[in-house]
User: Which sequence fits this backbone?
């Protein structure tokens, strides 16, 4: 990684490219042409976009990992953060997270952690509250959620977060840094939810399509950090979510940290008798 850092420092998707090993070879007294620089700019920008669009495939190669999530929401001057931690199997698109809700503003209410099972097309939640028995699961079809469960569950499905990058439209190489002790390459750009849904796996297509229709805008700014194998170590998306219970959009920043690739993952879905069939009160 250090060698690569010495070789180049690039900003792509814009007008500037600085490449330490890209030398201008003059033919006779002709020197460098401006058109060659423009071609290089476009090539590097295209390389970054292509790399990010295939980041989800690198997770499929890795198989599994542990994950930590955080979701920050700001609305009406109030900011809350929901945190989660668990494991994910990318090939089966199954995950398990324990999600911690923020304390009551007075500190008087302590929320029990919510266990979430992430599957293609459905979200299972235990300790959902609001009248649901403690031993029952709540099942929600993600395609019926206006955000495709990118926000509603309090944690973005790790593979959905990766597949969102399939809709990358612009990408800027920011530089090299470290995430949780791993050397990574930092990219910044924007993705389009409609394009991501079109190119997503069969399991994630409907959810991303629902999000493309339900968010205030299909344009999603992101920062992503890839390791030497092209795997996502950290990705942060910034959504503009329309909450039906209040006027205006809610700003949501979702961060997913992936580590311990190849860890054993055993996610078992609940039996039909363990799923709550009653009405769920709004919280």
Assistant:
């Amino acid at each position: 990684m250090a060698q690569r850092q010495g070789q180049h420092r690039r900003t792509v998707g814009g007008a500037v490219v600085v490449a330490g090993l890209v030398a201008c070879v003059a033919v006779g007294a002709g020197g460098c042409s401006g058109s060659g620089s423009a071609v290089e700019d476009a090539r590097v920008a295209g390389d970054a976009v292509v790399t990010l669009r295939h980041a989800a495939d690198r997770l499929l190669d890795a198989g599994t990992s542990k994950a930590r999530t955080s979701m920050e929401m700001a609305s009406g001057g109030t900011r809350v953060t929901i945190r989660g931690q668990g494991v994910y199997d990318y090939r089966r698109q199954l995950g398990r997270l324990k999600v911690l809700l923020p304390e009551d503003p007075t500190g008087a209410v302590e929320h029990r952690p919510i266990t979430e099972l992430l599957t293609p097309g459905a979200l299972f939640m235990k300790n959902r509250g609001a009248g649901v028995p403690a031993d029952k699961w709540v099942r929600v079809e993600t395609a019926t959620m206006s955000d495709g469960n990118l926000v509603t569950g309090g944690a973005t499905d790790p593979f959905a977060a990766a597949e969102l990058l399939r809709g990358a439209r612009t990408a800027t190489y920011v530089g090299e840094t470290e995430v949780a002790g791993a050397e990574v390459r930092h990219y910044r750009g924007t993705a389009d939810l409609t394009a991501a849904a079109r190119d997503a796996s069969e399991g994630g297509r409907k959810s991303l399509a629902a999000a493309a229709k339900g968010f205030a805008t299909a344009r999603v700014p992101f920062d992503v950090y890839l390791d030497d194998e092209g795997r996502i170590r950290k990705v942060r998306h910034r959504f503009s979510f329309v909450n039906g219970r209040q006027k205006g959009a809610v700003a949501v920043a979702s961060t997913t940290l992936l580590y311990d690739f190849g860890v054993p993952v055993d996610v078992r879905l609940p039996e039909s008798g363990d799923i709550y069939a009653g009405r769920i009160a709004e919280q």
